[in-house]
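lol forgot to send this yesterday, sorry. struct tokens for the thing we talked abt
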């Protein structure tokens, strides 16, 4: 039996480290499925990425260590500082931006391999092209999503024939990619054309999508980034990239499907309908009649102090007001008075998947008080008070009874069935989707106007005074 060479032993060690990486990724993802273990799940997955990075540097023939290590230090430093400083209200933008960077990195790998002009096998060339196109689309699309969430892009841009234009751009990118992948022509012009067309496609696909659909769009681009990374892992023969990309791609795909189902819409409808235009162009449906009825904080405090059950429905407005800590302080006062308090979370509340859960966890709300739509909906009928703070479209009853509404058929929280509905709202404007909320005009609804944090502070004082 011949002895194993040093390079062979090193390769075996690297492959074993990738097996460990796969285990850590999968266990991390599993632990992220529960709020109780999500934090440790992130640590597990991070440890997996650290293992993969360290052992990849040991590959025989690996060079350019100063550039590699310098890039790691710069990237890690930027991520650490921005992660520490970013406000929870801006977390969706950060997720979109970082996800775009992942897609861009996958596209860059494909570009390097294709620009070399070396003869690639047809299979490897095809994988590089497909991964590059997907990564570039995810990169530019995620940047547009970031711009919409950040308010840099304040309207959606749509025109007749936009879908046809997208199909033409996609067909051109695939044709050019086919020319390169088959080895017919791998010159700079054709390779550059692939990425230019893919980047343009990401822009034209995302610009027409309204802001209210951004949670689904972010999930979709997350899945695309994972897929692109997996493809480029095959190109490089890197098992860690294949594993990481597959895990991210499959998880992102499932999450996208769940988000679209929570809105009772197909993915095609999300991408092509233009619903959720931040400019208010999506405000279809029958007109809402009646008047909003204001109420004073002192009266709400008495109502809640003597209630038996209160259900709190948080939304993006709570995040903007940074009111989650005050909301939990109010709930603690009610619990001390013997009131049963629960939090109702809609799957698409906020600007990214799980946005409200993260905010409530930050405030220290126990996980057993937080329930999703399916768990909590039947309890609204027995609730004395439904406190809506910042939520809008996810509690709009037109989703059940107005077939002309863009959100008709979307599962909603049945807040309107509570005995009393209190809505904390800054003004009388429509929600992020531009649709008027019929809940605000019901006989059992009262409006407590003002900044979320200030209004909840008034409620705290009112409860204490009872």
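and heres what i got for the seq, position by position
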């Amino acid at each position: 039996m011949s002895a194993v060479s040093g390079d062979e032993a090193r390769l075996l060690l690297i492959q074993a480290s990738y097996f460990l990486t796969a285990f850590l990724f999968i266990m991390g993802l599993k632990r992220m499925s529960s709020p109780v273990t999500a934090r440790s799940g992130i640590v597990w997955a991070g440890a997996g990425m650290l293992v993969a990075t360290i052992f990849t540097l040991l590959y025989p023939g690996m060079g350019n260590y100063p550039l590699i290590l310098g890039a790691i230090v710069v990237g890690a430093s930027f991520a650490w500082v921005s992660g520490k400083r970013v406000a929870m209200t801006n977390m969706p933008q950060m997720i979109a931006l970082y996800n775009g960077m992942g897609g861009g990195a996958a596209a860059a790998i494909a570009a390097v391999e294709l620009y070399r002009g070396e003869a690639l096998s047809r299979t490897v060339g095809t994988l590089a092209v497909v991964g590059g196109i997907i990564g570039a689309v995810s990169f530019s699309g995620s940047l547009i999503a970031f711009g919409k969430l950040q308010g840099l892009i304040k309207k959606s841009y749509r025109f007749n024939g936009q879908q046809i234009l997208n199909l033409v751009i996609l067909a051109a990118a695939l044709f050019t990619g086919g020319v390169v992948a088959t080895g017919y022509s791998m010159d700079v012009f054709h390779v550059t054309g692939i990425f230019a067309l893919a980047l343009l496609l990401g822009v034209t696909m995302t610009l027409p999508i309204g802001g209210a659909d951004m949670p689904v769009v972010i999930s979709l681009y997350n899945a695309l980034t994972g897929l692109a990374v997996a493809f480029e892992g095959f190109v490089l023969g890197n098992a860690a990239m294949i594993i990481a990309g597959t895990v991210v791609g499959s998880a992102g795909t499932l999450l996208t499907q769940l988000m679209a189902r929570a809105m009772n819409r197909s993915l095609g409808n999300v991408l092509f309908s233009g619903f959720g235009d931040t400019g208010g162009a999506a405000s279809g449906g029958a007109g809402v009649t009646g008047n909003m009825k204001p109420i004073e904080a002192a009266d709400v405090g008495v109502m809640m102090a003597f209630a038996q059950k209160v259900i709190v429905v948080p939304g993006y407005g709570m995040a903007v007001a940074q009111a989650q800590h005050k909301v939990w302080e109010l709930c603690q006062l009610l619990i001390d008075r013997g009131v049963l308090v629960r939090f109702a979370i809609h799957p698409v509340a906020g600007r990214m998947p799980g946005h409200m859960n993260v905010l409530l966890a930050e405030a220290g709300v126990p996980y057993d008080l937080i329930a999703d739509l399916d768990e909590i909906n039947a309890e609204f009928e027995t609730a004395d008070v439904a406190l809506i703070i910042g939520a809008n479209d996810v509690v709009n009853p037109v989703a059940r009874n107005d077939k002309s509404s863009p959100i008709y058929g979307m599962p909603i929280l049945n807040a309107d069935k509570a005995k009393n509905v209190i809505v904390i709202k800054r003004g009388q404007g429509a929600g992020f989707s531009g649709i008027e909320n019929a809940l605000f005009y019901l006989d059992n609804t009262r409006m407590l106007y003002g900044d979320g944090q200030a209004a909840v502070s008034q409620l705290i004082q009112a409860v204490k005074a009872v």
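The two ends are 86 Å apart (CA to CA). anyway ping me if u want another try
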